Amino acid sequence: MAFNLFSRQPQCLILAIGMQDARTASRIHGEAFARAWGDGEFESLISQQSVFGFLACPEGRARDAAAGFVLSREAAGEAEILSIGISPKQRRSGLGWRLMLSAITEAKRRGAEEMFLEVDETNIAAVSMYRKLDFIKVGERSAYYAQQGGARTTALVMRCDLR
User: Fold this and answer.
1) Count of domains forming the chain
2) Domain assignment of residue 65, yes or no
3) Which residues of the chain are under the pLDDT cut of 50?
4) Fewer Cβ neighbours under 10 Å: the N or C end of the chain?
């Protein structure tokens, strides 16, 4: 993977996600989360008109080498992040930021005035990124996420005004 000499950020293209990317998104999801969504779950979501998303693909590599994805939905002026995942080796490289900016831009283009997401409160890097993107905490879901070993953690519900 190519790197900019003055940055540790990989040279990646942000591409619209399609049905052909379900397996790749499922692979990345499995690397990122304790309970992975299967290919069928991604296919079901991607096939819906209201759902959109993006892949972060290393420049010059096939789509199945993608290092991250975001999947979103827009309906009735509201958008939500259904899932975002970055391969562990590529975390903290700016891919999550670029994917979120792409999702926010597309949500606005589709008419969304606000965007919601849920994030594990223990995922400090993600919570920090969302705050920098102007998301604010609007609620919690106690014991929402199951961790390996059986522990359960709280989901923060966050909202961003897109107007």
Assistant:
1) 1
2) yes
3) 1-7
4) C
Under a CB-based contact definition with an 8 Å cutoff, are residues 17 and 55 in contact? yes
Residues 6+ apart with CB under 8 A from 124: none
Nearest to 72 by CA among 91, 85, 59, 90: 85
Residue 12: which H helix or E strand, with range?
strand 12-16
Distance between CA 60 and CA 80 in Å, rounded? 31
Q: Which of 147, 160, 146 is nearest to 80 (CA)?
A: 160
Read off the tokens for 66.
């993608």
Report the predicted TM-score, pTM, of the whole model to 2 decimal places.
0.89
Quote the pLDDT of residue 79: 99
Domain containing 88: what range? 12-161
**What digits encode the pLDDT tens for the residues 41-76?**
999 999 999 999 999 998 888 888 899 999 999 999
User: Which amino acid, residue 137?
Assistant: K
CA distances from 103 to 4, 15, 88, 115 (A): 24, 11, 21, 10
